[in-house]
Design brief:
With 169 residues, the chain is an alpha+beta fold. Helix content is 34%, strand content 36%. It has one domain: Roll (Nuclear Transport Factor 2, Chain: A), CATH 3.10.450. The protein has a 6-stranded mixed β-sheet with strand order 2-1-6-5-4-3. The C terminus is likely disordered.
Length: 169
Amino acid sequence: MNRSLLKVFLCAVAMQLASYVARGAEVRDAEVVAQRFLEAWNAHAPSIFIVAVDSDADWIHARGAKLRGRTEIESYLAREHSTWAKETRMTPLGIESRLLCEGVAIVALSWQISRENEAAFRGMTQFIVKKTDSGWVVISGQVTSGSAGQAAAGTAEQGAAGDAPEARA
């Protein structure tokens, strides 16, 4: 291989690697949404999280109810934190993310919710986020649940973030 061709090849590889590094940093920046959700949950203050929610975002909670828009999502979370969730603690079990396309990422927050003298339950909140001039914002969120002690989440009877038994209709 001649030297000029080798230089071109190495330059192309270096540019590709730089692109992957930049994308990695970008998608890690998107994870701030999950961190803000955790902070808001544990402070029982949805207003901390809601600033990272787009004005017309979609939200589906564990029972399948669909919410639309920042105001509706904030009202729902505020109701939850004035009732069953007000004495809970959310512990992160992991955050995973990947870039879907330029400026759009998926962020998955696995968590465990506990309340004194009760079995903890696990679940996941998945966020689709987009990059804006002011940072990453949620355009869609969904809560999933499984059974107590399961790697995924809490049972339908136990609930999940925003879906506790006493909150069920």
